[in-house]
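Hi R.,

Here's the chain you asked about this morning:
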Amino acid sequence: MLGLAGFRGPVRTVERFLAAIEANDLIALGGLIGPRMRLIDSAGDVIEGRRHALESLRRFARLAPDFRIEVADMSARGDEVLIRGKSVCADPRLTGETLWRAVADGRHIHEWQGFSADGTPQLARILMPELLEERATVRSP
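And the predicted structure, written out as tokens:
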């Protein structure tokens, strides 16, 4: 694991983000989300923009109010923070070993991506289906 001493800004932002998710603190999350935030699920689907990201987190809080991430370890390089751990909640679809990648600075999360190989559902499709359908319609000939 890389030392975290030189990367405290991004790491602290990620730690505040994780605490806000666990607390379902949408006000704190709103303050941590960057203006061009990108949420990327394990299927590679993307929710872009601060407004859409905050709405998807609001929906996620309703879907899994007891959700938390148990961090096993964290490493940082520049503005990227890698997190290895386990997602835990009553919904078994959302529980399991996962890797996350965050792009952050000392104030905001700019990108949050989950990597899971154990059948984690496509969260972007669950949380913001209308957004993904809209994009698919725009791409269709």
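Confidence is low (pLDDT under 50) at residues 1-7.

Let me know if you need anything else.
M.
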